Amino acid sequence: MNILGEINCFGLCLKVSELAPLVALLIVISIGLLAASFMIRMPKHRLLTFVSAQVAAFIAIISTFYLMKCEGMLTIYLYSGYAVISTAVIFGSLRFYDRLMIRRLNAKPIGNVIGWMQEFTGRLANATVYYYDSAVPKAFAAGKSIFVSLGLLELLNDDELKAVLAHEAWHIRNNGRTPFLKQLAIMTFSSPGRGELEKMADRFAEEIAGSEALTSARSKVDKVFI
Ligand SMILES: [Zn+2]
Question: Would you say the pTM of this structure is higher than 0.85?
Answer without folding.
Answer: no
